[in-house]
Amino acid sequence: MADLLNKKKKSNLLDRSSTPKPEQTFDRNNIYSVSEEKVKKPIKKLKVKTTTIRCSQDTANLINALTTLGDSKSVDETLVLLLNEYMVKLTDNERQQVKTIKKIYDKNSGIQ
Asked: What is the pLDDT of residues 97-108, one digit of tens each?
């Protein structure tokens, strides 16, 4: 019974060996000011609008076949190659007319 009176009571508190130190300290000036290194200017990416062109199934299959066999990664690239080859065969006057009409279409569709 004497042991029960002399026993130490268990403490529910944690025994800390040392006080933890913060890795970074801040003062009032650092919190409200922005350093120039951290600010990055957002890069504006040009968003390319896509559209649908109506054509016959036979024409679509032919374009897909040319895309598959060619070095193009997409139908868009195949059409650009075909259109560039076609533009080379036009006369200067016809080529200028096509560029003028394309500018009008670009203006109407919001592409500058």
From this structure: 999 999 999 898
Kindly state the tokens that stand for 112.
């500058």
* DSSP calls for 38-58: T--PPPPPPPPP-------HH
How would you class 66 by CB atoms within 10 Å of its CB: exposed for 0-12, middle for 13-18, buried for 19 or more? middle
Report the distance separating Cα 33 and Cα 77, nearest Å: 48
Q: 1: which 2 tokens?
A: 């019974």
pTM: 0.54
Q: Which of 79, 74, 31 is nearest to 55 (CA)?
A: 79
Which residue type, as a one-letter code, is found at position 66?
L
Q: Cβ–Cβ contacts within 10 Å for residue 78, how many? A: 20
* Alpha-carbon span 40 to 34, nearest angstrom: 11
